[in-house]
Amino acid sequence: MDRKEKKVLYKVSVVSLIFFGIFALRCYKEPPPLPPGPFITPETRYPIGPGDVIEIKLTPDEIGVSGTYEVDDEGRILIPLVGEYYVVGMTSIGLRVQLQKIFSEYIKRPYVTVFVRQMKSQKIYVVKDESIGVIYVQRPLSIFEAVIIAGVSPKEDKLSRVYIIRWNESKKSSDIYSVNIEKIIKGGDFTQNIYLTPGDILYIPPKYIKNVREAIGLFSGIGYSLIFGFGGFRVLGIVK
Question: What is the spatial distance between Cα 228 and Cα 50, in angstroms, rounded to a whole number?
Answer without folding.
Answer: 26
